[in-house]
From TrEMBL, chain A:
It is an enzyme of class 3 (hydrolase). This is ubiquitinyl hydrolase 1. Keywords: Hydrolase, Protease, Thiol protease, Ubl conjugation pathway. InterPro entries: OTU_dom (IPR003323), Papain-like_cys_pep_sf (IPR038765), Peptidase_C65_otubain (IPR019400), Peptidase_C65_otubain_sub1 (IPR042468), Peptidase_C65_otubain_sub2 (IPR042467). GO terms for cellular component: nucleus. It comes from the Eukaryota. It holds the Pfam family Peptidase_C65. GO terms for biological process: protein K48-linked deubiquitination; proteolysis. Residues 70-278 form the OTU domain.
Automatic annotation (TrEMBL), chain B:
This is Ubiquitin-conjugating enzyme E2 2. It comes from Gomphillus americanus. Belongs to the ubiquitin-conjugating enzyme family. The active site is at residue 119. The keyword Cytoplasm does not apply. Its EC number is 2.3.2.23. Coiled coil: none annotated.
Length: 283, 185
């Protein structure tokens, strides 16, 4: 098979076809990012420096942020950042806890909620790759024996968006996106008061488009489905121009289990990164 | 044709399952992502085994990423008894990005321009990874009977659709021209 897609354009090619080809290429164009999809841990001083010449409210808040949260991971802002931060953060916290059984339990939990895909009526050829991507990643993490190697495998899987690769981060994120949407559709009573006009259908059909951002409703759904039962808290740090000298902190508590760990997400309007508290920082 | 469908396209009763055809293809598609190949072959198999009424689609002889489709004009619309050929070009990250779809048959329609370009939200910012060839073609078929006249590419067509159905129908027939086989993409 030709890799360029040009070879079939022989002398019968009309101007229309050339234009179509140009449009197709333009549609595929993705701006070059220097960064990774999920970066290594970076000092939060960098966030403070970003605002050095900016708004005073941000200068004060980012200065205080770095006192409590020493590191952050930059998450690529391509419309998937919230899903990427949550999914990476969840598995990272489970790995850091150092108990293989937690990873096994998480795999079981994913396979339970995969029933949502089956019940959705959508043909399995559409979603089986997503399920497989998640299972493959969890199997890899479970079979890897040391924490550092597990973290490395997770980092590699989430930074891999090569079309030829097996660990396909797009499949992982699309899996999460549709689990969330179908979970909300199956539990309308729980979510209808939080979506615009109370319309679950409109909310979910928008959530299912390829670059729809995560919001608090979809984050709540992700937590209810995947992290709450694992005993994982989610905390979001809101860095915005609201009144105050520090970021606004909001927690999603686990429902029953004791708290084992916390995913900390740093939210700036339209974007999620991951943040990491300094040891002994107030929680 | 260097993908696995060649031997199976005329043998629907004993045709391999989607899984089998995906397996057959492995190792023959170095340049195209495995996932897009697998997905398109599965879609092709489904379309062949249970074709929806008034719709057909098949890859070109040279690339699995380049398809030709046919849709029949819906009954009780100005497009009744007409058929339309379209081209679908799939990006290498399909289904995480929409295919580029063009009408090859000249068509007079409020949301299609004179080059065959289509204005339909699901082919742009409303694309979703659960959409597929079949759902795109069905959406286009219903677009024929229910144009979105709020944002027309062809303003005159929108105007005639709303206010002068007779003239609209006349323009549709005037513009329509069946493609010869060798004009197919």
């Amino acid at each position: 098979m030709e890799d360029t897609g040009h070879n079939h354009m022989d002398k019968t090619t009309s101007r229309d076809e050339e234009l179509a080809e140009q449009r197709r290429l333009a549609g595929e164009y993705v701006p070059a990012y220097d960064g990774l999809l999920v970066s290594q841990k970076l000092s939060t001083e960098l966030i403070h420096e970003e605002y050095a010449t900016g708004d005073i409210a941000y200068q004060v808040k980012t200065s205080n942020l770095s006192k409590d949260f020493g590191f952050f991971r930059k998450i690529r802002g391509d419309g998937n950042c919230g899903f990427r931060a949550f999914y990476f953060g969840l598995l990272e916290v489970l790995i850091e806890l150092g108990d293989e059984n937690l990873l096994k339990a998480q795999k079981t939990r994913f396979n339970e909620v995969n029933g949502l895909l089956v019940r959705s009526g959508v043909d399995s050829i559409i979603w089986e790759d997503w399920v497989e991507a998640t299972n493959r990643l969890l199997n890899l993490l479970i079979s890897t024996k040391h924490k550092e190697e597990r973290l490395e495998a997770l980092f590699t899987a989430f930074n891999n968006e090569d079309d030829m690769s097996d660990e396909h981060s797009r499949e992982l994120l699309t899996h999460l996106r549709f689990l969330i949407s179908y979970h909300i559709k199956e539990n309308p009573e729980q979510y209808k008061h939080f979506v615009p006009d109370g319309s679950i259908d409109a909310y979910c059909s928008s959530l299912e488009t390829v670059s729809a951002e995560m919001d608090e409703v979809s984050l709540t759904a992700a937590h209810n489905m995947l992290s709450s039962a694992a005993g994982i808290n989610i905390e979001v740090l809101y860095l915005d121009r609201s009144i105050g000298n520090s970021v606004t902190r909001h927690k999603w508590e686990p429902e029953k289990e004791k708290v084992r760990g916390v995913i900390t997400m740093l939210f700036r309007p339209g974007h999620y990164d991951l943040a990491y508290p300094r040891e002994n920082a107030p929680s | 044709m260097d993908y696995a469908m060649e031997d199976t396209q005329n043998s629907a009763p004993g045709a391999p399952t989607a899984h089998e055809s995906a397996k057959l293809s492995s190792g023959t598609t170095q340049a195209t992502a495995q996932s897009v190949t697998k997905r398109l072959q599965s879609e092709l198999m489904t379309l062949m085994l249970s074709p929806p009424p008034g719709i057909s689609a098949f890859p070109s002889a040279t690339s699995l990423l380049s398809w030709t489709a046919t849709i029949a004009g819906p009954e009780r619309t100005p497009y009744e008894n007409l058929t339309f050929k379209l081209s679908l070009e799939f990006p290498s990250n399909y289904p995480y990005a929409a295919p580029t779809v063009l009408f090859r048959t000249p068509i007079y329609h409020p949301n299609v321009d004179f080059s065959g370009r289509i204005c339909l939200d699901i082919l742009k910012d409303k694309w979703s990874a659960v959409l597929n060839v079949q759902s795109v073609l069905l959406s286009l078929q219903s677009l024929l009977g229910e144009p979105n006249n709020a944002s027309p590419l062809n303003g005159q067509a929108a105007e005639f659709w709303d206010h002068n159905p007779t003239e609209f129908k006349r323009q549709v027939l005037l513009r329509h021209k069946d493609l010869e086989d060798d004009e197919e993409c």
